[in-house]
Amino acid sequence: MLLEVMNVRKTYGKVVAVDDVSFNIGRGEIFGLLGENGAGKTTTIKMLSTLARPDSGRILLNGKDIQKYRRETRRRIAVVSQDMNLGYELSVFEVLYIYALLRGIRNSRKLIDDTIEKLGMTEKRNAKVGTLSGGQKRRVMAARAMISGAELIFMDEPTIGLDPAVRREMWEMIRQMQSDGRSILLTTHYTDEAEYLCGRVAIMERGRIVSMDTPQSLIDCAGAFAVDINSRTLLFRDSGEADEYIAKESLTGHRVRQTKLDDVLVSSIGRAV
Amino acid sequence: MGSYAVLYREMLLFKYKLMRLGYVFYSVSTPILYLLAFGLGFGSRVQIPDYGAFLIQGIVCMSSMTNSFNMVSVSVGMGRLHSGEFQTVLTSPVSASSVMGGLVLSGIIRGLFASSMILLAGLFVFHVFPFTTMGLFALVLNTAFFSAAGVIIGVIIDDMENHAVLTNFIIMPMAFFSGTFYPVDFLPHWLQKVVWIMPLSHANKLIRVGELNSATASSFVLLSGLTLVCIAAGTVMLDRYTE
Prior knowledge:
Shape of chain A: globular
Strand order of the largest sheet of chain A: 6-7-8-3-9-10
Oligomer: heterodimer
Low-confidence stretches of chain A: none
Number of helices of chain A: 10
Largest interface: A-B, 29 and 25 residues
Shape of chain B: globular
Number of domains of chain B: 1
């Protein structure tokens, strides 16, 4: 295993941000942390990236405690933050060049120019970050992770606020990083994103992981058939069970469909669906 | 390479600020206003020989302090609390001492730049250039101390409003009572003792002597010591930084 997270807990005063969280990430895997705002996803990433210390529990990267081997850990990881932390007065090239210097990458100019070209942003090379669109800024943030040489990349809601077409471009970038051999921890509250990209998904609620598996297994486990009744959705294991319920309740105006990860998320976090 | 990365980033931002002329005006306008108001207003009425040179040296020290402290503390504070850029530095494999080194160097350069603007203004208004090698030493120590203090403040504040409070209650009184506009000897005896612990008063003492002598050696040792302590404390805080 590349990353092992064992019984990690983090509190801020009386607020429990992350509670007894355990999971692991294999090499080349895209692992998703799914949950609503305040579920504990960002705090988990802060702990994994050495920015926050867990109150208890252990986090191992390549078998080594990340708090004990912080500098080595930081060499092996890259963080794509939820915040647009780029420096708006700097140009795209300068942002990437400074990041390469921070990572200790020598003679990085060609690497940076190649990455900029790969992202289709050659004409924006010398443009100030502040003049870029939201999608272009997100691409520059992903570009930092691409040039970092990190084997594990933490992406905290990398497509938040992007339009559908740009989101799909970001998905392809993430897939590209995976095919380059990187492992990725992706936090999101877009279930279609998690379904498309992630090999496994953990659903977080109030700091705890409430379920964890492949997206399809989570759907099968919750019930593959969904019945929409007005604003409510009920999940059933098979169509027979769904038909039986509809007949018994004499339902009209309902809709039967395949369950989506979205339904599982809402069901898992304890809301009536 | 880590220090260079931090320094390079700060210098690029500084360059872009300088290119906006409003910044240059803003950063040196207040000190130049002091220079004109006190220098032309009091001038020969003050019982200090060559008051113009005295005032220029004091305002140079004060400007080096405010520019180093504000630039570094705002860069760290804003980068940490608002843009999140500072977290990018902290999660990179650069050591805390390298981050500290880069930030302190950037503060020194910004402080020296502001000082040179005041010296040029003094030359233009009073036709004197009261600056020595010892003065350069004093300025480097002064800017290093306040840059390191800026890192510490930037790391500990939880709101940028706190930065304004600290500036008003610590930096501004230090600027007025540490011998910037008149000798510390003019103050009541009890206040002189308070002023003695203010680093700016020692920088002011050092910038006004041509060479290190028995009267100023203690200031040199004290300012050097305080600078080293501040750099060490800031490095430890960066190393132990947690959210």
